[in-house]
């Protein structure tokens, strides 16, 4: 029997002449301060996509303000089976300021199969913010997360920083706080990762 903290995700990557089956075991380890996140997931009617999130809370207080920790780009995975200092040190810093944190992973992430990545092609910045908000709202309601729905912020680095700025500009009625770090601004200068592979023309 699989421990509740472990989820096995099976996904396929369609290649030219065969299908490669990849298996990833998501094991939610405790952070260095002993805090264990809650693994969340949801689906939507008419779609086979499954969305995941980690929910962190380091306080007994109810209705804490919430920070959405996002990346959303085509070359990063936040929900994985390895300890990521870059992610969790940031999460710990936010928690110490008495915020709850929801780390989100949507369908634009890499390593979930070619079909999911194709939905990102030539659409950068056009749908990710709305998708993150949709998933966040579903997870908050599904799991009855004790957060202040009137004080939700967005935090991201690199492509996530780009989306954080997009979020505050497109949905300022939803996001009250924004932190954008190492923001991706000049797409032509990032041609290797975000140019012709994803947008065709930078």
UniProtKB/TrEMBL annotation:
The record's section on Pfam families has: Peptidase_S9
Q: Which residues form the Peptidase S9 prolyl oligopeptidase catalytic domain?
A: 96-178
Q: What is this protein called?
A: Peptidase S9 prolyl oligopeptidase catalytic domain-containing protein
**This protein's superkingdom?**
Eukaryota
Gene Ontology BP term (one):
proteolysis
Q: Organism source for this protein?
A: Intoshia linei
Q: Could you give a GO molecular-function term held by this entry? A: dipeptidyl-peptidase activity
């Amino acid at each position: 029997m699989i421990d509740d903290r472990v989820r096995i995700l099976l996904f396929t990557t369609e290649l030219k002449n065969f299908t490669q089956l990849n298996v990833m075991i998501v094991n939610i380890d405790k952070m260095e301060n002993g805090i264990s996140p809650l693994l969340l997931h949801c689906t939507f009617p008419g779609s086979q996509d499954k969305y995941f999130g980690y929910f962190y809370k380091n306080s007994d207080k109810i209705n804490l303000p919430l920070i959405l920790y996002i990346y959303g780009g085509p070359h990063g995975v936040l929900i994985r089976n390895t300890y990521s200092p870059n992610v969790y040190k940031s999460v710990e810093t936010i928690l110490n300021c008495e915020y709850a944190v929801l780390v989100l992973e949507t369908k634009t992430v890499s390593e979930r199969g070619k079909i999911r990545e194709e939905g990102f092609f030539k659409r950068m910045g056009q749908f990710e913010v709305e998708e993150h908000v949709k998933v966040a709202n579903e997870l908050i309601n599904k799991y009855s997360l004790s957060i202040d729905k009137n004080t939700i912020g967005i935090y991201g680095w690199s492509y996530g920083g780009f989306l954080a700025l997009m979020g505050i500009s497109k949905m300022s009625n939803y996001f009250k706080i924004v932190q954008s770090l190492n923001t991706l601004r000049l797409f032509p200068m990032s041609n290797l990762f975000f140019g012709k592979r994803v947008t065709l023309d930078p």
